[in-house]
C-alpha cells in the first residue's frame, strides 16, 4: 500500500464497542412503540444517521409519524444512549487500538475520525483518545449520512491529503460503501460476510501495526 499519509477511523464498533448501547436504546424505543426490533434489524442501523435509523425502525413497524414527533423520539433515544455511555472508561477501548494508534504516530501518519455520531467528543474524552486525532469529523459537521462519502472527504480535506492517500477503518456496510465512494482504501473491522465491499477485512486491531499494512 503505497503513499498512504492518513488513516480515518469510524468510532462505534471500531475504536470502542458502543454499538451495544445504541442497540439497547433503540430497542427500548421500539418497545415503547410496540415494534419488534432484533439484533438482525440492528445491522441495518450501523453507520447511518440517527434520523435515518429511526425511519428504519418505523418502517419495520409500518408506522408513519410527523417530523416533530420523530425529532422528539430521536432525542429520547439519544438521552438514553448518552446515559448508557456516561460510564465509559479507557478500559472500553477495543483490544489493540492504542498500540495501533501509537504505531501511526511513530510513522507520522495523520489520524482523523469519520463518524456519524454526534456524541463523538464525549466518547473520545471518556476514553482519553482525543489527543490522538488531528481532525475530528462527526455528525455535528456533516449533513449527509453514510454511504454518502461526505464525512470521509471532509476528513481528508481537514488533514490536507488526497482521498487516494487515506485508509478508512469501518465496521458497517454503509461506512465501507462511503469510504469506497470517497475513493479511499477501506479495511473492514468485523465479518467478511457482512463487509463484502471492503478491500480487506480484519477481526480487530490485536497485534496490528502500520508496518503490517505496508503491502
TrEMBL record:
Signal peptide region: none
Manner of cofactor binding, per the entry note: Binds 2 magnesium ions per subunit.
Keywords: Carbohydrate metabolism, Isomerase, Magnesium, Metal-binding, Phosphoprotein
Active-site residues from the entry: 10 (proton donor/acceptor), 12 (proton donor/acceptor)
Residues where substrate binds: 10-12, 26, 45-50, 53, 77, 115-119, 146
Family: Belongs to the HAD-like hydrolase superfamily. CbbY/CbbZ/Gph/YieH family.
Protein name: Beta-phosphoglucomutase
Organism the protein comes from: Clostridium tagluense
Amino acid at each position: 500500500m503505497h503513499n498512504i499519509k492518513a488513516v480515518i477511523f469510524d468510532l462505534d464498533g471500531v475504536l470502542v464497542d458502543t454499538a451495544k448501547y445504541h442497540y439497547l436504546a433503540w430497542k427500548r424505543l421500539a418497545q415503547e412503540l410496540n415494534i419488534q426490533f432484533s439484533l438482525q434489524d440492528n445491522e441495518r442501523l450501523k453507520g447511518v444517521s440517527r434520523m435515518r435509523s429511526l425511519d428504519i425502525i418505523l418502517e419495520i413497524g409500518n408506522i408513519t409519524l410527523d417530523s416533530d414527533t420523530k425529532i422528539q423520539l430521536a432525542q429520547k433515544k439519544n438521552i438514553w444512549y448518552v446515559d448508557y455511555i456516561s460510564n465509559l472508561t479507557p478500559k472500553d477501548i477495543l483490544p489493540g487500538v492504542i498500540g495501533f494508534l501509537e504505531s501511526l504516530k511513530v510513522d507520522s501518519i495523520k489520524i482523523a475520525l469519520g463518524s456519524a455520531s454526534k456524541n463523538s467528543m464525549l466518547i473520545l474524552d471518556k476514553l482519553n483518545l482525543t489527543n490522538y486525532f488531528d481532525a475530528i469529523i462527526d455528525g455535528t459537521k456533516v449533513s449527509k449520512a453514510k454511504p454518502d462519502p461526505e464525512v470521509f472527504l471532509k476528513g481528508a480535506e481537514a488533514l490536507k491529503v488526497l482521498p487516494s492517500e487515506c485508509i478508512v477503518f469501518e465496521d458497517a456496510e454503509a461506512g465501507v460503501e462511503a469510504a469506497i465512494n470517497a475513493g479511499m482504501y477501506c479495511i473492514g473491522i468485523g465479518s467478511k460476510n457482512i463487509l463484502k465491499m471492503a478491500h480487506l477485512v480484519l477481526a480487530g486491531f490485536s497485534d496490528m501495526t502500520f508496518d503490517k499494512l505496508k503491502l
